[in-house]
Amino acid sequence: MSRRTLVVVGHGMVGHRVVEVAVARGLTAEWDVVVHAEEGVHAYDRVALSSWFAGTALGLPAVNDPAVDLRLGDPVVSVDTEVRTVTSASGLVTPYDALVLATGSTPFVPPIPGSTGPGRFVYRTVEDLEAIKAFSVGKTTGAVVGGGLLGLEAAQALQTLGLATTVVEFAPRLMPVQVDPGGGEALRRLVEALGVEVRLGASTQEIVDGPGGLRMSFADGADLDVDLVVFSAGIRPADALARAAGLEVHERGGVTVDPGCRTSAPDVYAVGECASALGRCWGLVAPGYAMAEVVVDRLLGGAGTFEGADLSTKLKCLGIDVASFGDAFATEPGALELVWADPVAGVYKKLVVSDDAQRLLGGILVGDASAYASLRPLVGSGLGVNPAELIAPSSSGVQLELPDDAQVCSCHAVTKADLCAAARATPDVSAVKECTKAGTGCGSCLNLVKALVGKEMAAQGLTLSKALCEHFTYSRSELFEVVRVRGIRSWSQLLAEHGTGKGCDTCKPTAASILASLGGGYVLDGEQGTLQDTNDHMLANLQKDGSYSVVPRLPGGEVTPDQLLVIAQVAKDFDLYTKITGGQRIDLFGARVEQLPLIWQRLVDAGLESGHAYGKSLRTVKSCVGQTWCRYGVQDSTSLAVLLELRYRGLRAPHKLKLAVSGCARECAEARSKDVGVIATENGWNLYVGGNGGFTPRHADLFLTDVDTETLVRTIDRFLMFYVFTAERLQRTAPWVEATGLEHIRDVVIADSLGLCGDLDAAMERHVETYSDEWADTLADPERLARFVHFVNAPEIPDPSIRRVPERGQSRPLLPLRVVR
Amino acid sequence: MSPVVPLASLPFARAVCVLVDGEQVALVRTSDDTLYAVDNLDPVSGAMVMSRGIVGSRGDRDVLVSPMHKEAYDLGTGECLDLPDVWLRVHQVQVRDGQVVVGLAQDVRRPA
Ligand code: SRM
Ligand SMILES: Cc1cc2nc3c(=O)[nH]c(=O)nc-3n(C[C@H](O)[C@H](O)[C@H](O)COP(=O)(O)OP(=O)(O)OC[C@H]3O[C@@H](n4cnc5c(N)ncnc54)[C@H](O)[C@@H]3O)c2cc1C
Ligand code: SF4
Ligand code: FES
Fold first, then answer.
1. B13 φ/ψ sector (left φ>0, alpha ψ -120 to 50, else beta)
2. Predicted confidence (pLDDT) at residue A130 exceeds the cutoff of 80
């Protein structure tokens, strides 16, 4: 039988999902799929639209199937349901056997005088965002009309663009659809605390162009002068095309469809936000995805139906958690509301439970939505615990038993049963995400997904093992003891005596690091070189396009004008993108392997050395100018920072190490966010340990008070070495301090309770004595230089895949296109 | 099949990148002296970096691990052991009088 044609109108999130499912379920074996897209770009993740400002690439994975014909930037302008054709803006007429409308919605702009024109924007497409960004240059103020979910996202965007932002909401509270008055009040406080002005119960009457930008006037006579206005006053289903084609539409808008997503015309379907299913439009992506599945199932002869969807939302906007789920407004007769509010902390939590307090019906969380992932799946099912416990401040610890049919991931409709089944088959978080798609949408269920997979793994005794990897039954700390006590000097000896197989990317670099910590000397000779990650192997950091970055050490953040001149000249000569790092030094990005030695020769000649940005080792010792210049400084913080950086440079550790020294309590060097922080006092130094920025920030704990420099340095020596001796792989000092206990560490490194201090001191002495600059050593030895070529059989040819494009007066990678995902 | 490098020049348990008829190939010599040739293109990141990855084993398979995001590939079949529908092309490789010779795989389909 001859091939049939499916035409999809709209290439947004749901239109694209239709195509994905069609390919996945084999529809394209018999059908050709023609997609007409109004937007000129491939379908992207509109849910994550705002992260476009942060430079995130939003594109959704493309399907590569020859049966799919994607026509970007060519919208459909008319549909003829009699002769069964669609006509596009470019004049293409395409006959269809089945037609799917996935035209989404358009932002609603209130029909007030002056609502259109320069400086007025909406917030729906990447194009909208580009326009807002371009216009905002040099502007100072902005207003968002609409204080709903999207309005607050738009407000956040304007703020990040540096505009003083006002949110104008017609209703008496923010997010009126999701939260009740109590929640709205908590939300307002939080939003205002972030410097966004909020005007409630304000209806905009008119916008006029004035000399200083736009003047908005409100019903109550007040007015507001701004440079630009973003309308986020709701959305309207894009059903114009369907109306013109004579399809039945719902009185409140949206193409009317039955549970099979069928419109009033034969073989014409509508999905996503343009469809009115079960008497309403569904303004979230998950229901749209469900409809996409239904349509493809129908085309395959199935009888799939759309049964409505969970409209729970959780979002973090302006950094504020807001969640509302289930019967949030307690509409069920007899429903009870439990409210817990902390106005000072700006936290508001409400649970709606059945009259017998046995079933959870819904809830609202503002300011702290950590309980959302575990509460939402419980809606409709028994509670088992006293509901109050669930929202009380201490609730984080409460463990909930989810029923098997509880939906864990609402973006991809994955139940606890599905998830656990997958976890039993492949007990590995990424594998489970891979096959169930759970956690790959908005991400709000990730913690729960991890927890559940973790449970299954534990059940299989998997997480219990602290084995480094399949080749060693020891943990990193145990392996370190083995190497130290048995005096093992090489990888082959270690593997032969204590491991199995040929090693992997986990145990090899770990062994390399242990051998180096115990004074293995130059890290790249012979066998030890083969153990290293590419960063250590090339003594540089791999970048996404296969080039590397170069970071010379600038102890304490000091740099002489002459060194700056050399760095600048090198950057110019090798066209390296140059950036001041967050660690008080300079990073030169984009060097090809064969350029690294040439670059470093010139840096080393200028007295610079490796900054070990690539190593799990000392990064930087951040400093402030201190006593020398600062009128508040009470000690010479810069000199101490330089001393410490020169002492610990090159020390290989379980993870990277960062230190800082501040010259007074004002703490300009942010020492308390570092693994080791020193803060000057009138009488000496205060020592702090176990600080961390990064993924899980932690303030360092006070370890010593008012000590002299000698005591300080000896204590840091021992603290660092004890960490090197006993921490696990990739465990920063912060979690290590928590696992080991601050008091225990004090006993060991100050009271010498384990009699270990001798060894710790000796190990550090050896490190300080044997340190030598890896780059200088490499340049001095032709054999060591040999590895810095791309093609070993054509050393003169550089990697042709590395290409550059200009950006803001420098070069950046022309990114390799990702072949999958 | 074209000769590319002398076997003696290849390190053990580490990969190198060679240019074969205009294509980038990662040559691997394992610690027990087995030779493999696979694409140098990392299919996940799109960067030419496979030859910079760590060589090791998973179970009884020899693997090469992408240095970019650490996916492991079976050197025998090219199959990615961490992601579905991802693979490296496996090229023919042998030693003729001390020279390593490589024959590019014509077929871009995934291994059986
Ligand atoms: C270049 C730099 C960003 C910048 O442009 O400023 C940077 C870049 C990278 N950081 Fe960072 N971090 C940089 C400062 C920081 C800081 C700020 C600081 O050090 O004051 C932090 C938070 C402070 C902290 O670490 O506690 C930071 C927290 C991280 C983390 C999270 C660590 C954690 O404990 O959670 C990672 C991931 C990791 O290390 O596992 C990371 C990893 C990385 C890596 C190495 C990721 C990678 O493997 O490619 C980046 C490569 C650097 C390169 O290619 O040269 N970077 N990174 C900064 C280099 C500082 C330097 O001079 O060495
Ligand atoms: C800033 C923002 C944040 C959001 N956050 C969330 C969230 O956290 N959670 C959530 O579930 N949802 C969220 N949404 C909503 C979600 O993005 C939508 O539900 C989803 O995109 C709907 O998909 P769709 O395909 O129906 O419509 P769309 O994604 O809008 O796609 C419709 C496409 O059809 C095109 N089109 C229209 N007419 C034609 C024509 N005649 N011919 C060809 N093409 C046409 C349009 O240009 C558009 O590209 C958010 C939306 C925005 C804007
Ligand atoms: S920390 Fe103190 S000494 Fe250092 S710059 Fe700040 S105020 Fe000055
Ligand atoms: S709930 Fe959004 S990804 Fe799972």
1. left
2. yes
pLDDT band of residue A462 (cuts 50, 70, 90) is low
Report how far ligand 1's centroid is from the alpha carbon of A716 (Å). Answer: 22
A376 CA from centroid of ligand 4 (Å): 12
Cα A610 from Cα A649, distance rounded (Å): 9
Average pLDDT, chain A: 90
Report how many Cβ contacts below 8 Å link chain A to chain B: 109
Residue A493: other Cβ atoms inside 10 A: 14
CB A530 within 8 A of CB A787: no
Share of chain A above pLDDT 70, in %: 95
ipTM comes to: 0.72
What is the residue with the minimal CA distance to atom 49 of ligand 2?
A12
The residue with tokens 């326009």 is A131
Tens of pLDDT, residue by residue over A326-364, are 888 888 888 888 888 777 777 888 888 888 878 888 888
pLDDT digits (tens, 9 = 90+) for A400-445: 567 787 788 877 888 888 988 898 888 787 788 888 888 877 766 7
| C-alpha Rg value of chain A to the nearest Å | 31
The sign of the CA dihedral A443, A445, A450, A453 is negative
- Report which residue type is found at A516: A
Contact A449, A407 (CB under 8 A): no
The C-alpha atoms of residue A52 and residue A33 are separated, in whole angstroms, by: 29
Residue B62, both tokens? 């020899």
pTM of the complete model beyond 0.95: no
Q: Nearest ligand, CA of residue A287? A: 2
Low-confidence stretches of chain B (pLDDT < 70) are 107-112
Give the residue, by CA position, lying nearest to ligand 2 atom 14. Answer: A47
- Sheet with A204-210: strands ordered across: A204-210, A213-218, A223-226
Min Cα–Cα distance to chain B from A603, Å: 25
> Residue A535 CA: which ligand 1 atom is closest?
48
DSSP codes of every residue in A189-235? HHHHHTT-EEE-S--EEEEEEETTEEEEEETTS-EEEESEEEE-S-E
| Token pair in block for residue B22 | 């205009």
Per-residue pLDDT, A325: 87
